[in-house]
Amino acid sequence: MTGKQLRNSILQWAIQGKLVPQDPNNEPASVLLERIRAEKARLVKEKKVKRDKNETIIYRGEDNSYYEKTLATGAVRCIDDEIPFDLPNGWEWCRIKHICSMQAGKNIPSSEIFQDKSVSHPYRCVGGNGLRGYVSLYNTSGHYAIVGRQGALCGCLNIEYGDFYATEHAVVVDSYQIISPIFLYHFLTALNLNQYATATAQPGLAVSNVLEVLFPLPPLSEQEHIISKIEKLAPIFNQYEHDEELLNTINQELFAKIKASILREAIQGELVPQIESEGTAEELLEEIRAEKRRLVKEGKLKKSAIANESRIFRGDDNKYYEQIGSNTKEISEEIPFDIPVSWRWCRMEAIFQINPKNEAKDDTEAAFVPMEAVNAGYGSGFTFQLTKWKSIKQGYTHFADGDIAFAKITPCFQNRKSVIFHGLPSGIGAGTTELKVLRPLANLISPEYVLAFLQSPCFIDEATFKGTANQQRIISGYVENKLFPLPPFEEQRRIVHRLQELSEFTF
User: Fold this and answer.
1) Which pLDDT band, with edges at 50, 70 and 90, does 153 fall under?
2) How distant, in Å, are the alpha carbons of 292, 327, 352 from that of 440?
3) How confident is the model at residue 414 (pLDDT cuts 50, 70, 90)?
4) Are the C-beta atoms of residues 149 and 171 closer than 8 Å to each other?
5) Is the pTM of this model over 0.85?
């Protein structure tokens, strides 16, 4: 049971009369309702509130059924189907409108709301989800429960007292100084008013609908006992919720560290054993070089991709060297960790086409993938919009089935927004320029293994950025020059399979 579930359970016991024992000597809630009706009548007579033209009363008939009578017309209807549970003796079912009024506040420009309290802005400004800031004037004075009426948290409850400004998103609950605002706060919370919100992109509560909600009303003295009991229990479930949040944080941090550790082992050749019969990564690199020569011959790759190709090897002195053309230099200090003898280090630009271009007819159906359509996390999920190639071929990053892409901007980069494209219409697509796309130069590089590398600490933690604090991007050349630990192809596949077995990695 979560902390929220524990709190809700206690409140459910409260509204059903199970939290504290009943005292038969208590003045029944029916007398309390009569007192509230008398007070409302007085306020109507003094023109302080409007008369309810559809005022009703709820009562239990001799047949033990519940009925609701409209006072103006005398019409009576059975409401047994609306009654959610039985109440103890002395309690009464009523509607929220029978015991209080609800009135939303008034709009105030954001420019008149200040973050800090001051002499010129001493009053709390209360919105649908609590404190918004401080203002120079107030429109409400007293002690009230406040119901939020707009946004994802509509139906949430707060307590306000003194002089304050209620905005149009804050509904002030006035119980005519008869029922405690604290009691209403707890019981209205238990009734989960959010369930009455309109199902739109911006949920909202209609006050007229909320006023019709059935309310289980205890005797006034029992209300006080319920408040006292909840206040005694509050430190317990507050501590429970705190401990739960702490545990969740620890679990999330542990989960992230386990993921990172698994990925680190995967790209260091420690996750699965090496099998000599699977060959070496050097053989795989020879096939990639042959593929590059073919692409150059077909005009799909620049000659410089071969002329300036990087080759990394380990010398007889056990040091690492890189040869580019006729130049060779030692790069031992760049090597981040040891890899198995069957693996090879290589620059990413030597084995991938980076941000490749697609060729297709203008009327070809293609996929458009904006950044928000790429899922965060360790998965490889994405959605796309179907469009014609002519509308996206210019000004966007190209990709095709089998390509790997990742976000090169923060915070999407740290959130590991990365993807293997598959199932694209016509096999091609384009998307935001903030995606970096890698296309393996041979079918002997597993996209899933590449994705694991892109999500590993070796790639994520070592990236450097430029730009403003709110939007930074990986520096030019980081990906191209990044050292990539390349295993034999079959070992790549076994690594991916093991990742899926050990964890919740999905590719």
Assistant:
1) confident
2) 11, 26, 5
3) confident
4) yes
5) no
